[in-house]
Write a structure and sequence with these properties.
By secondary structure, this protein is an all-alpha fold. Helix content is about 80%, strand content about 0%.
Length: about 80
């Protein structure tokens, strides 16, 4: 049973490596609705990333601010 696992893994890896070579030309297009959806998703991701950075930065800043104020109060 253990001998089968490496063989299955190697065949799966070789399939993943050879699959892109077997593609065919397709004549598809992206319509304007799909294009605008992609643009909206990119903009939302950027805005969400900026918001997450802002919230995280404020939490880090508040944590170290409290830590420093405790340290300075204990030294007084």
């Amino acid at each position: 049973m253990d001998k089968l696992k490496p063989r299955a893994m190697s065949s799966g890896i070789s399939l993943c490596l050879l699959l892109p070579l077997a593609h065919q030309i397709s004549h598809n297009y992206i319509d304007p609705g799909t294009g605008s959806l992609i643009i909206q998703a990119l903009i939302a991701s950027l805005v969400g990333g900026f918001y997450l950075t802002k919230v995280s930065w404020n939490k880090v800043k508040n944590f170290f601010g409290k830590l420093i104020s405790k340290f300075t109060r204990s030294n007084d």
